[in-house]
Amino acid sequence: ANKRAFQHAFARLESSKEKLEAMLEEDQTSCRELRRILRSEVHTRAGAAALLGVDKIPLSDTELLVKDAEKKAKALKDKIAKMQTVAPDYAHAVAVCDEAVQTLGRVSSPESLPRAEALLKEGAPMSRALGLRDLRVPWPIVLMEPKSAAYTISSGATVRFGLLC
Questions:
Q1: Residues 58-68 pLDDT 10s
Q2: Rounded to an integer, what distance in angstroms lies between the CA atom of residue 40 and that of residue 92?
Q3: Residue 90 and residue 111 in contact, taking contact as beta carbons nearer than 8 Å
Q4: How far apart are CA 106 and CA 125, in angstroms?
Q5: Which of 34, 17, 7 shows the shortest CA–CA distance to 94?
Q6: Four-CA torsion 103, 106, 107, 109, nearest 10 degrees
């Protein structure tokens, strides 16, 4: 069993190496930009502004800022477009860019921003909850997919029923 586990691990490592080499052969600049996008913290206003290169000052009217951020996000997506066919994380990077625009589009004042962003540092005290947006966007960590099953049971059978969520 250990030999097979080691072979499987090395096969995954070899596959990852081949994907990385393919990305670097495609375009090194796009590969670096993809890495920068994936490592950015877009749930904070400062992180989203740093990624897109726009002003991070909180505003009550974000219309012009959002338009500028959308232009910068589109330019950023164009820079990494070459990675679409070779990078497994391309869709995630595009979602990160979109989330950065949404973060900058949230109306906030200089007084309320520190309190709102402090909530991002707190963990969720439950395993399931509606509205935990940061766990579903930009990458689906939490998925809500209902499942059902039906079984026919004989009338004389003893049955134990468990529902696990």
A1: 777 788 888 99
A2: 12
A3: no
A4: 25
A5: 34
A6: -30
pTM of the model as a whole: 0.66
For every residue of 9-34, DSSP letters joined together read: HHHHHHHHHHHHHHHHHH-HHHHHHH
Question: Is residue 88 a contact partner of residue 12, using CB atoms and an 8 Å limit?
Answer: no
103: three-class secondary structure by DSSP: helix
Query: In 10 A of CB 120, how many CB atoms?
Result: 10
Element (H, E) at 8: helix 2-26
Give how far Cα 121 sits from Cα of 101, 117, 138, Å: 20, 7, 17
Q: What is the pLDDT of residues 88-142, one digit of tens each?
A: 889 999 999 999 999 888 887 777 777 777 776 666 655 556 555 555 455 555 5
